[in-house]
Amino acid sequence: MVKVLSTRNPEVFLKPVLSGCGVYDGSEVHESSAVLVHLSRAGADISMFAPDVEQMHAIDHTKGEPMENNRNVLVESARIARGNISALSNLTSSNFDAVVFPGGFGAAKNLSTFAVDGPNMKVNDDVERVIRDFHTNKKPIGLCCIAPVLAAHLLPGCEVTVGNNEEDGGRWPYAGTAGAIQTMGSFHVIKDVSEAHTDKKNKIVTTPAFMCETKFHEIFDGIGKMIDGVIKLL
Predict the structure, then answer these.
(1) Can you tell me the distance from the alpha carbon of 42 to that of 94, in angstroms, rounded to the nearest whole number?
(2) Beta strands 98-101 and 14-16, pairing class
(3) E strand or H helix that includes residue 60
(4) pTM of the model
(5) Minimal CA–CA distance to 222: which of 168, 170, 161, 176?
(6) Of residues 21, 144, 145, 212, which has the active-site annotation?
(7) Is residue 145 flagged as an active site residue?
(8) Which of 13, 32, 122, 176 has its CA 20 to 30 A from that of 3?
């Protein structure tokens, strides 16, 4: 999570929720960093949250293979947060104006079981509580990369984007996720990596990020659009 004090509105507080550290088993580091940079540029006073649970598994990122010893999501997320992090169980919408979920497979493995169960996934209890809490209280929710499946599952009928529904020669290797979103009863909106989609009715803002095989600066720019969209909804 990130607590944000925005220069555009000195009464605004936002937070990202992390899912570990590393694209294959946690939060995608570059996406998380982009979220923090854009929030910081908006004048953020930053702190973060993550579930205090064991990861689905730990991946050796040099090989893309599971490691023998597992890791804790909160402990690993603290690497990105530079140690300034709290357990997600402590978070309620009463203290914040919006919530942001960076991507990475941790969202599909640790925050939910989407990586294993697809549309029949289950969501971590605290993650579900937080998303429903913010939605019920009409506070914006930002999600990028694979994380939009969380909203698609918990809030059927919402609109999200994970980019494209076709692989387009390998540019969108996870295009099948769009079909899973439709299966869960939500709507997928095609967007390019440098764009974001805002579901004004549900106050959900999403961007594809690393669902696309592209350059780092394009990921950064798209996440900037997502953060701008969240702030505009406040």
Answers:
(1) 21
(2) parallel
(3) strand 59-60
(4) 0.93
(5) 161
(6) 145
(7) yes
(8) 122
For the chain, the residue count is: 234
Mean pLDDT of the chain: 93
CB-facing half-sphere around the CA of 99: CA atoms within 13 A = 30
**Do the beta carbons of residue 133 and residue 98 sit within 8 Å?**
no
Q: How far apart are CA 102 and CA 32, in angstroms?
A: 5
Please report which confidence band the pLDDT of residue 95 belongs to, taking 50, 70 and 90 as the band edges. confident
Instruction: Provide the CB-side half-sphere exposure for 204 (13 A, CA).
Output: 30
| pLDDT higher at 117 or 3 | 117
First vs last C-alpha separation in the chain: 17
Dihedral (Cα; 189, 193, 194, 195), 10-degree rounding: 10
Count other Cβ atoms within 10 Å, centred on residue 187. 16
Asked if residue 1 lies in contact with residue 223, where contact means CB atoms within 8 angstroms, the answer is no
Q: Taking the CA atoms of the chain, what radius of gyration do you get in angstroms?
A: 16
